[in-house]
Amino acid sequence: MNAEATIDNPISDSALSRNRMRDTVLHAITRTAAIGVLIMLSGVIITLIHGSLPALDQFGFSFLHTESWNPVKEDFGAAAPIYGTVISSLIAMVIGVPISIGIAIFITELCPKSMKRPIGIAIELLAGIPSIIYGIWGLFVLAPLLQHYVQPALISTFEHVPLMSSLFSGPPYGIGMLTAGLILSIMVLPFITSITRDVFETVPPMLKESAYGLGCTTWEVVRHIVLPYTRVGVVGGIMLGLGRALGETMAVTFVIGNAHRISSSLLAPGTTISATIANEFTEAVGDLYTSSLIALGLILFLITFIVLAAARLMLLRMERRSGA
């Protein structure tokens, strides 16, 4: 017995040593990767702050609420791009979120089994289309359709309706804030739909079958069982889509009109932070012009960070409220 133990122990010790070494290497690699992410993020923040200092020193707080953007006179303000970024993203969410959740409900609750896979693949393919393709399609197909059919109808319909008349006023250009919001709603749709569908499928079948057994309709099951059970995941998917909408560049650049002005009309041309940077960075002459564009990047970073942080706080509050 002692002889066997004497023979086995070196082998066991060697195996344990190898396992410990592998664990140590794995720990070092993963820790390095995690720290690397923090270093890269810190580098981005430091670069944006350092690059935007000349513009922030020159214009101060007025940079945030000034609409003027005049490279010739070197007079810059971020109000119009900030307004365009927020409004186009809101339009995308207002249109895209109900459609995305509706598609997810159809796939998980109502769709015939033979159609689930084709529809799911089609949704995922939408996410893989490059944004410039959406932009070209928006410029040459969607914008003319809106210009000739949709926008004139909206103008005539809401012409005498208070508040709505200012939202849908002016000439129908085709391109503008509404068109950009529509393109963004299509682009965020696959992200929200895929995540929502996945979380809907985590609902235990017993819960739904019990509700159906009590005589609930599909709508009642979705409203009282599926949505409350998955609300955290659904909100997370919506926030992911909002983050995509806030930072989208190429597609928006094609259809928004790239005009540095704030208009109450959704049909008027505008611009976003990312579109302004993409359009003008290669043409920026002078430190102040370049610094102003970098300052726009810093503002976009802060907006995205605030949105994601608010979403995280909201999810934490929802988890605490549900007793998780």
UniProtKB/TrEMBL annotation:
Record's keyword terms, sorted: Cell inner membrane, Cell membrane, Membrane, Phosphate transport, Transmembrane, Transmembrane helix, Transport
Membrane topology reported for the UniProt record: Multi-pass membrane protein
Membrane among keywords: yes
InterPro entries in the cross-refs: MetI-like, MetI-like_sf, Phosphate_PstC, Phosphate_Transport_Permease
Main location: membrane
Family, per entry: Belongs to the binding-protein-dependent transport system permease family. CysTW subfamily.
Task performed by this protein: Part of the binding-protein-dependent transport system for phosphate; probably responsible for the translocation of the substrate across the membrane.
Protein's name according to its UniProt entry: Phosphate transport system permease protein
Gene: pstC
